[in-house]
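Researcher: Batch entry, complex prediction.
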Amino acid sequence: MNQTQTPVYNPALSGNPSSSNRAYPNGNPADPLNPVGAKNTDSVVPLHRTGEVTHDYRCDGPAPGTIGFRWIFGSIVAAKNTDPRVQVMQYNEDTYLMRENICVHWEGPFTYLLFGNKGALLIDTGATSNAEWYPLRKTVDGIIARWAKARGKTNVPLTVVMTSGEDAAQNQGLSQFVGRTHTRLAPKSLAEVKAFYKLESAWPAGTGKIDLGDRVIEVIPTPGSHRDGVSFYDPYCDILFTGDLIYPGKIQIGNDKDFVRSIERLKAWRESHPVKWILGGHVEMQFLPGKAYPRFYAYKPYERLLEMKPELIDDVLASAKLVVGKQMVLVRPDFQLLNGVSPDQKTLEFPAGVANINGPRAF
Amino acid sequence: MQLNRRAFVSLPVLSFIVPAAQAAFTDVAEAAVAPVTIDFKSRLPAAGTLPKRWICGSESAMDNTDPPTQVHWYNEHTVVLRQNKCYSYEAPFMMLYFGNERVLMVDQGFNQLRTDWPLRDTVDACISEWAKKHGRKAEDLELLLAFSHLHADHYAAQNEFVDRPNTRIMGLTHEEMVGFWGMTHYPEQRVTLDLGGREIWIWGSPGHVMSEFAYYDTYTQILYTGDMFYRGRCYISFWQPWFDSMTRLMKFLDEYPVTHVVGCHVEMGSRGEDYPYGVTWQPDEAPWQLTVAELRHAYEVAKTITQPGIYFTGGVYLCNQTRGTTTIDKNPYAYES
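Model: Structure tokens for the complex:
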């Protein structure tokens, strides 16, 4: 093999959005300075608004959004971490992704804040109740206040829901919202959750709705990782929020039969609805295929990205069918399935045809 | 005298004793106390204390305000150090043994950078404090940096000492480890390190890894068993060598008095609950030290073990050939439909 090749810079491979073959790190002078459509920015807020802004959430295809980057990944010495306690990422002007610092809690749960014309929805509440350590409420209040000001709204009612009320990594921050005005909190117990989504007679086959005002979030019961697991579908951004059911990490199956049925339900959902991304509640995989970080790590410099392509559901379903009734770990490039084993369980079995690379271990 | 490691190993330990004439030049202003040769051989075992509770991390790691290393003087010539759980989840223990001529440090923790975790500064402060108290010059005391076994959470901070004068550092291979102590018949051979009137006995105790030592301090009669036997999950990689090492310890217990058996970590709660691998908060830790009875009982349990698996002896978990970080934890959210 010829070893003397000079590497050629390929902007596409390097994540450079420039589509031409040449690299223009300082801008291409040949590009038009006033491209067509430049006046139509992505902003949903008019430049000179008069009164309250009502946004039209109907759109062809998914609403644009940005998510292409790595998350803050902790530090070697957790005690010396100086990163933000809640990292906020604006996906678009009505959708915010937030993550708890992994040096506050190793689970580093993701929480999502969505806005509609008549209110906001917070999906999941993180793993820490102490507002000094994990100021979720303060962060959410700040985003809502800024959003409300931009839209000329005086009252933005907030609904707080969870992908699982029993999950201690996602229900701890709920207490920070107790007593907040114009706020509706989802209950933690399964029976109350069913009533909350009006699914008493239709659990888990039916779907519920949360109307944020022209942006109706669908509630899909998806038990499997948790007895009371639910997923949320946002028809504006075409995102499925799956919590602990599907995420790039060590998925601990609570009940394998329920798990398969829920994945089947999501697969059917994907076939009948456009899905751009699946966003789970955590990231535990490394960017090396099949490799996950152990629990409790507060430094994960080689994390996989959060977002998952919808086609991954097929892989999850096929894998889930393989582990039903067995106590085992199944490794896939983007996730691992743990059925009936310790959360720390490892396996030497590695999927065929996948590069088996071990990353450096930092200390 | 120029000494390389080979010369150090081949020479009798006596030749390192600082000549009395040199000691006479000691600056009187610096030495607040006249240097008296400390007697490490009578009234044994030397008494000492251990903390009721060690510093054990915090619920939110980034809000931890404890010192990077907990320093505990067991008695005035023996220091126990422990890395903060929020600086490294391994939170290894380390020992400093002072003698009339030199200081032995066993284990150096799990962080490489002095800027991240200033172990070097902590150790230097301990040595200065001891030297001042006992009329020595800190720079005259040779520091021996050894470790219990060949795992990074017990030698990572060696780096911080590479430019320290008058310091010998154990190498990171099995050959260099046994060579450092001048052993030719590892693991059975027991060698004696003379710190200047204070003897440390060292022999092999493979099993967790093949390259591991047990350290017995004749002054405090503390037996330091590294990761081969400690309050937590003793990961037994190789059963037969480990069992043989246990048998060797039993023979030792029959012949010599032992006050405490101590290891490198604590991974258990006071009610025997297992703190899983990697946690940075262990709110209710069991004591670090084990009794001789607990060690003997573990040996009795070990005699009955024929299969790989995790066995709880009451004092420790024996993890026979289980994979590195496997714990007994269960998925708390598992349910029947």
